[in-house]
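Aim 2, interim progress: modelling of the zinc ion-bound target.
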Amino acid sequence: MTEKGLTEKIALVASMIARAERIVVFTGAGISTESGIPDFRSPGGIWTRFDPDDFTIQKFIASDETRRKQWKILVEEGLFRNIEPNRAHRAIAELEQMGRLDCIITQNIDDLHQKAGSSQDRVYELHGNMQWAKCLDCSSLFAMEAIREQLLNGKEIPLCKRCHGMLKPNVVFFGEQLPLNTIEAATCHAESCDLFIVVGSSLAVQPASFMPGYAKAAGASLVIVNMSPTPCDRLADVVITEMAGKIMPRIVTETKKLLKNLPC
Ligand code: APR
Ligand code: ZN
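Predicted structure of the complex, ligand included:
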């Protein structure tokens, strides 16, 4: 895309944001790659190095060996590495501060929207949040930091401190029920927005990938910022195939200019 074409698209999206009444931003792993976290389906992504079948809830529960392997992968993949939000996360947090954001629906478990300043009660985490571990026996929740000591001191399969039951990261594994109340609330926001902006998702995994369609069916405009094609591109009003960290700050800057010139 030429710089001129890109600038025109950014101006168009900024005008859509300036005019919209209820804006939902939908994010996937692609928004966090510029924070150093690999996504899942790009070259070098997590599912190109590990088998998703190993991450089913059935396998996690079935065997010590699987649990040992999964905790090991999580630690090696940087479960405790200090990760920071990038310019794309911060741009979306700025939209909220400008009064231009209804909510964020995210598939990510990295807590980076909250770290960037987005309000917790405006972030719907469809796949949970890696900051917590849950006991499958007594349902106690523990901050992952508390588990860190056990893991980094050689404990291969951390156990619940309360009942010595099975601990699992509080994220959705394949084959596991998504948090129903979160899905319902997110669907309601998708169906009642007038602008739906996808940032960094292949839109490959259901039911999350239904959300853009719900918004479009309810009459919303659809914008997709993603480095590769998605199944919803044909539905979109604007598709920008560029890095989120480059585009989102430019969109926010253009929106601010428009809002400044709007009659009070
Ligand atoms: N800017 C914009 N797009 C990017 C960037 C970037 N910096 N980096 C990667 N992308 C794009 C990729 O081209 C890809 O299309 O982000 C998309 C990420 O897609 P996936 O890796 O499939 O991640 P996601 O859509 O979040 O996957 C959904 O699948 O395995 C499950 O639970 C997992 O939540 C995850 C779900
Ligand atoms: Zn317990």
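The radius of gyration is 19 Å. The first helix runs from residue 3 to 19.
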